[in-house]
Prior knowledge:
alpha+beta, 11-stranded antiparallel beta sheet, 11 strands, 2 domains, single chain
Amino acid sequence: MGRICKNKITDHIRDHFRANPLRVPEARIKPMTVLEINKKKQQYLGEFKFLVKGGFTQSVPLNEETVAEVSDTVSKATDVSLGFEILGGFLKAMGTDPASVSASFSKSKKLAFSFTNVRRRFIDPLQLGSILSQDIFGDINNFMLHPAINEKHIRLALITDVLVSNNFTLSSLTEAETAVAVDIPMIEQAVANSSANVKVSKTADHQVMFEGPTDLTFAFTCLEINIDPTTGRFSRGDWMKNIKSLKGEARSFESLQPGEESQLDQILLDDNEQFPLLIDL
């Protein structure tokens, strides 16, 4: 299957923010949390403070800024069935059944979507690095960390930045990508019949906004961190060993010729064959 989620929004997220779009947005993905990366598979491990021997009591400020470049940017239109494969994750994250919502788009042939009030939350990696350079060590006795510490193909990713929003808008379109009305009352009834605390707003005859009570992370960036298996000392990993050229072959950073940097894909973790632009957590 092709890159069904490739659009103006995901391109901007990947290229400008070097961020990984999530297939299913969720609140637990936030700065100072850790993922375990095992080849193509990723799993959430937990908060960084539990990775530190004796706990992590130092303060690392969490910053926030508005991301105007993503807010209100409308995606390219995609086939309605494929669109709900993608957007179903957002609806599920808000506690709404995607099937009940998709029935309201019976006249639609294509969908487009956008986010409003997008914000970026982030820590300063240099500040964290300065703190970890002191006498702070990873908990090498924590059995949950043993695979990442002792097996080279398993890595730890510390999330440093996230993009969050509590809403998104769906646009209903014809095959020719002109507006077509959507059954808003049916959507409102579907949401009312669920236990979700979701607000549904009609922004136009062909557009509906879904707004949840809490912010959800829909994209993130991270750094690889290493823990010495003997001392527990922290160091920064090297994602550059995983870069690939546009032709797909593996390359090392040292092998690059002058000017070849522009031919590389972004250094991202998403390698899902069905949804190539999405992290599936």
